[in-house]
Amino acid sequence: MDLKEEAILGEAIHRHWYYVSKGRALARFLGGVPGGEILDVGAGSGIFSKMLIERGLVTRSTCVDTGYLADRDETHAGRPLAFRRSVTATDASLILMMDVIEHVDDDVGLLAHYAAMLPPGGQVLVTVPAFQALWSGHDVFLEHKRRYTLPQVEAAMRRAGLEVVRGSYYFGFVLPLAAAVRLGDRGAVPKSGLSAHHPLVNAALIAVNALELPLMRLNRLGGLSVFCLARTGRSI
Questions:
Q1: CA–CA separation, 125 vs 128, rounded Å?
Q2: In terms of CB atoms within 10 Å, which end of the chain has fewer, N or C?
Q3: Nearest in space to 84 (alpha carbons), one of 143, 146, 40
Q4: Closest by alpha carbon to 148, among 113, 212, 101?
Q5: Is the pTM of this model over 0.85?
Q6: How far apart are CA 34 and CA 142, in angstroms?
């Protein structure tokens, strides 16, 4: 999650259709099975860690982001929530990289760096913006290096030494509208594509994306975001 978007949306980020919908998709993609500790890389405000904690799917989270001014420890819904500028080791069994690897030149190297901290059978879940054809001022503003197709993400995971478990697109239902807006903004001053909406519009977008959730794991055709789950070597 990008700290720039947190600065734009403020507290409204917790109600924004994009983050509400993506949090629900994350829980659905993971299978809704309670787990233990997670390492949330590039976590920004920690919104996705907080969502998983609230759903009882996580007992503890460490959020890592070079944008933090200092390390700190908090609790959320009664669970430990740590914020760190960097880590060299983790007890987590799941690493989240929510819209992170598109920001770096060496995406495979970043994946391999954090995957090496996991035990056998540990998992890495990545989301990225989809389709280079949708490149716009939104990507420039957020300092993206690239957008991806699902096969490209899966290939990066494998090159990092991981075994792909499953992958799919999400935000397929709103893809045509978003594509029209993004392509129409080409050549404009770079800015985030996310903004606050009227509550009725926001609620409608949440409802539309909720309809897609039951089909999410089957969608290998298209959407605004790619989700990919991979694991390290099988546990013995």
A1: 10
A2: C
A3: 40
A4: 101
A5: yes
A6: 32
DSSP label of 42? T
Cα–Cα distance measured from residue 154 to residue 230, given in angstroms and rounded to the nearest whole number: 8
SS3 content of the chain, % helix, strand, coil (to 5): 40, 20, 40
Residue 26 contacts residue 51 (beta carbons within 8 Å): yes
Task: Find out whether 172 and 123 touch, Cβ atoms under 8 Å.
Answer: no
Token digits of residue 44: 């920004």
d(C-alpha 124, C-alpha 133), whole Å: 26
Q: Which pair of structure tokens corresponds to residue 54?
A: 């609230």
Given a cut of 60, is residue 235 above it in pLDDT?
no
List, for residues 182-212, the tens digit of each pLDDT value. 776 666 666 665 667 788 999 999 999 999 9
CATH classification of 3-231 is 3.40.50.150, yes or no?
Answer: yes
The residues, any chain, with a CB within 8 Å of residue 109's CB and separated by 6 or more, are 160
H-run or E-run covering 231: strand 225-231
